[in-house]
Amino acid sequence: MKSIAMFSSLFLLTATLLTAQKESTSSIQHRLSSLHDSLGYQAGWQFGLAVKREGADVNTAILIAGVRDALTYSSPRLTLAQVDNLLEGVRNKLDQMIEDQDTTGNIPLRLYGKSSKNGPDNITTPNDSLSYAIGYNYGLGVKEQRSPYSRLAVVEGVAHCLYDKESLLTKNDELQLEVHKQQERITRQNERMLVAQAEKDFLEKNGGRPEVKRLPSGIHYEVLNPGQGESAAIEDRVTIHLTASKLNEEPYFDTYRTDQPLVYKVSEVSEEWVTILTWMPVGARWKLWIPPDVAFGTNFSGEVIPQTIEVEVEVISISSSEE
Q: Would you state the CATH architecture of domain 194-320?
């Protein structure tokens, strides 16, 4: 999905005015027995609060299922492309409303639709799908950050907040967690400086290898398989498999694992990816090294320490946008 494949900040759409249905959370019951449990629970709870602030009528059970599926590598109930398109559609609607200065009617209802009482195994309405996409996208964001949270605790935090249960964290627990996170921020700042130098050294060495080329943006690439035939035009759609990881780590995103290739219209991706996708014919497989300033931006200030992202992308097919 674009939020992963293009390595920009995750587009997080949330919603709230929760439906009246109440799903038992016994299937995700998790006691907080460690710091990672508590941090995960707090993160999930805070996401639940963000959902509530939005004011939309979402299907709570389906949203929670989306979070759980993403965090536990369960088979997704929607494809990654569907999740991306649903979130992009809402953002486009909102942008258009802002441009038109259109504040008539129930804006959350216009954006998200009305929720059903369907369960996670019966996603049939547009609101069902969007609820799942919101939860799944959040879960992917947690995984992308590679935080050492207990994933079941994250899910439980979301569920407890959205179902208006009492938090498992006391005020004293919250205070201790904030002290811990402040200490972590100081440690992380020191790590940033060390990582920045290591990244610079790696890119200089990698860029000196004869088989590695460089795009104007600073992205390094190596052609593993040149493919054959013509490459995509700007108006075409390209189907790709993609894996992404930090240097010397296991992939945190892998469409081969889910057997769900991504589909993009070339004209709708970033400038760097327009260059890549219009240079790669069908069957081509490239390895890319995306420097931190390209992957995260020069003013990145998130929790994740910006690092070079190693990507392998394979073009499966190219089709006309009219097909």
A: Roll (3.10)
